[in-house]
Amino acid sequence: MEEIPFAADLAEIRKAAAQLPGAKPVAVNGIKVAASIRPQKFVFAGGSDAPVEMPRTAFQVVYPDHTVMLDSGLDQATHDSFSTPDKREPYFPEEFAKLQRALDAARMIVLTHFHADHVAGVTQAANADDLAAKTIASRHTLELMTNAPHRPHLKLTPERAARFRAIDYDKVRALAPGLVLIAAAGHSPDHQMVYIALEDGREILHSVDVAWNFDNIRLVRGKAAPWVKEDVAAVNGQLRWLNAVGANEKNVTILVTHDGELFGAAVRAGRIGGELKL
């Protein structure tokens, strides 16, 4: 299997999480605003024809006096643009309305990469300019949103892109106490993971879209959907790294954006909350 070892150092990431002064987060909450249904054989190589629910999620990092949103979900029109009129996939407008309120209330919004289900909640909002002013995005993400958007209607003008808070970094970047971005190009050229160190000592590693399902990590087996264009060797190395973290770091909870079963299990176990703080 072609594989480029992923060079992230968990010790370095933990050090970055303690770099900025202030109170650490007290909780992480998640929300599902839509879902796609895909055969397992598309989710990972060697899978069956059994359908797999792939929710479209966003997460909220809760501090004592404010919140930070990780990604922004997507509006129904953007969600529907991935399907045909006679085969619409599940969308939950009431949940998206909650997400919109959480985005409005957040002190900061973080975009992990340029794909539609991560950015459209900001770019398509009625108050998009206000949200952009508090939204962190890498310069690479903004370049892609401007020059090669995931869906044509999400294209930013240079003037709109300039309203975002652009950042550059090489490996890891502390954004707030206990909150660290990890550069992880592969699923997309601008892809990032997120590490969260909670005040009570627990750790959460949001793998974002390195995997679509925890089985990708457990089996170290990549996606097999014919429409997915990834740096396969880079993704395989990241899956290997995540597998090792899961096996050796029992204090770390790994999240996966599109794994419905994992999301539900994390909520039931109390590792994340299933309702956003509004």
Tell me what you see in this structure.
This protein has 278 residues and is an alpha/beta fold. The protein has a single domain (10-268), classed as 4-Layer Sandwich (Metallo-beta-lactamase, Chain A). Helices cover 32% and strands 23% of the residues. It is built from eleven helices and eleven strands. A six-stranded mixed sheet has the order 1-2-3-4-5-6, with helices on both faces. The longest helix is centred in the C-terminal third of the chain and has 17 residues, at 232-248. The termini are far apart.
SSE order and pairing:
Layout: H1 10-17, E1 27-39, H2 40-43, E2 51-62, E3 67-70, H3 76-80, H4 93-105, E4 108-110, H5 116-123, H6 128-132, E5 135-138, H7 139-147, H8 158-161, E6 165-167, E7 172-176, E8 179-183, E9 192-197, E10 203-206, H9 214-219, H10 232-248, E11 252-255, H11 260-268
Parallel strand pairs: 3-4, 4-5, 5-6, 10-11
Antiparallel strand pairs: 1-2, 2-3, 7-8, 8-9, 9-10
Helical amount: 25-40%
> Averaging pLDDT over every residue, what do you get?
96
User: In the CATH scheme, what's the topology name?
Assistant: Metallo-beta-lactamase, Chain A
Q: Report on the biggest sheet.
A: 6 strands, mixed
Regarding CATH, which class?
Answer: Alpha Beta
Arrangement of strands in the largest sheet: 1-2-3-4-5-6
Domains, number: 1
Task: Name the overall outline.
Answer: globular
The CATH architecture would be 4-Layer Sandwich
State the fourth-level CATH superfamily: Ribonuclease Z/Hydroxyacylglutathione hydrolase-like
Please provide the ordered H/E string of secondary-structure elements.
Answer: HEHEEHHEHHEHHEEEEEHHEH
Beta-strand segment tally: 11
Q: Low-confidence runs (pLDDT<50, min 5 residues)?
A: none
Q: How many DSSP helices?
A: 11
Classify the beta-strand content into a percent band: 15-25%
Q: Distance N terminus to C terminus? A: 45 Å
**Rg to the nearest angstrom?**
17 Å
Indicate the structural class: alpha/beta
